[in-house]
Amino acid sequence: AVGKPTHDMLFILNQPFARMAKLTGGLIDGEVVAGLLLIVNGRFWRGLGACLRAFRANRRANRATARRLAAAAGPAGGSVAGSVAGSVAGSVAVPMADPVAGSVEGPAA
Question: Rounded to two decimals, what is the model's pTM?
Fold first, then answer.
């Protein structure tokens, strides 16, 4: 099947922009996607600034979540929770329960 696109690739390429946040596993969120839409709609510099600010904020939030997971795992370095928190440190946003509202933090669905 050389030269023919697979159905998987067609499915991924024809997704709306909002799906990017879900497909990246937390690397980008809705604010980054909104910045990308600004770029596509002709507001390059404004969109680029929005993307960079949102990406940095999302990365900071991901790291804070990873630190909270590591602190919750305790001093046992060999535990599963500790290894998960270490692997999550820079790439994936893991939702944490909000004790006040009982909701979940993280990217908007």
Answer: 0.55
